Structures are given as C-alpha cells and as structure tokens.
Amino acid sequence: MPQDPNIFLSLGKPVKDEYGRLIGEVVSFAVKPNGGAEHVYIKHSDGSFVKYPAGSIKVEGSDVIYLSNIKYETEVFCDQIPLIWRKDQALKELFEKKKISPEVYEDLHNSFEGALNQLKTEAQKLMEKIDKEIERCNNEIRELNYALVHLEVEHEIGEIDEQSYQTALSRIQECLKRANLEKADLESLRSKLSNILLGETPSKAFVKEAPAPTSPVLPEPPVIVYVKEAGESSL
Questions:
Q1: Angle at 68 between CA 67 and CA 70, to 5 degrees
Q2: Which of 116, 148, 13 minimizes the C-alpha distance to 108?
Q3: What is the pTM of this model?
Q4: Quick one: what percent of the chain has pLDDT higher than 70?
C-alpha cells in the first residue's frame, strides 16, 4: 500500500480507525534514509506507544485514519499473488515458443512456484485472522443486541428516564452500525482473498484471454481465538 504523501501532517492529530473509533495520537515517525516515513508512532489512551506501518495511515483533510493491518495485508497479497502468477505464465509461454532453454525455464519456474506457494501459505493464515475478526464482530453484535433489549425493558418499566434512554439508545445504535459495517468489510476481504487463492482473479482481471490456473480447493480455515494485532504491536 503506497504511503500517503501528507503523512507528516498527521503529527499531533488524533487517529481513528475506519469506523470512527479513537485509537490514539500521532507522536512521531520512523524515517527512512530517503526521507519517507517507514513507521508511525501512536500514543494510545493508556499511555502506551505503538509503531504502525506508515502505509496503514491515511490523511483525509483534518482526519487521520488507520487502515487495519488485515486490510493492508490483504491488498499486498492481492497485488503480489496475481503478479507472480502472471510472470510464471509468461515464462511458460516463452518456453513453449522455444525462446528459452529447458534449464532456464525449470530454474525460474521453480523460483516463481516457490514464491507463489509461500505467499499462498501466508495468505491462508491471513484468512484465519479474518475469520476470527468476523467472529469478534459477531460476538460484539450479539452483546450489543442483548444490551439493547435490557435497555428497552428497563425503560419500559420506568427504571430509566426518557433522556437517559435516548442517549443510551443512540450510543448502542451507533456501535451496532460500526460493528455491522466492519463485519461486512471483513467478509468482503475474505471473499477477495479467497478468489485470489483459488485462482479466479488472475484469469478475469489480470490476464487477457488466458485460462484460469488450476488449483485445489482450499478447506475453510478454522475460527481461532481472537488476538489483537496491529503492525508490530497490538492495540
């Protein structure tokens, strides 16, 4: 993911995720020798400092937005896997046209194949992360719905006054909207990544009139316990 050219303007500003939740405040940068920012340091509300990839920070006017590490990694895989697949297909065509020797073809093909398999293995692990994030959203949505029901009951029997009820109702509805939006985004990422792993996208979007590569259908990844992760540190 390319670095935002306005990233240095984020210094001292609050950072929110894509769903409006406050993450912290930008306090410094790790700068590469060529002058570009490699990482962004963010101070969290608990006083901790966390280093995030610069590519995951986006500046939109006065807003500084953190793009989730999962979304960042998904974009990387969706760029790299089709690119290597295209190179391997081009290599095969050159070999069939007898423009390269069998020895060179075999050496380069093995190199491309090894890199592709490594990326697919890592992408499969990312799908497992996406699954646990979707499960987290499901749990959050379920708890918010329970909270909503309890609020309605207490309001109905007169234990909560109208003003407090309306304020709490607004907060819960806002949280539900964010959780459902995040879940939808995660499901979209999972579908995109799954299509890449199954070889569907290269044939449709990246290669003209070329048949899709055959690959075995991957099993559904397991849902595992949620572990927070952002860049090199957890939120």
A1: 135
A2: 116
A3: 0.69
A4: 83
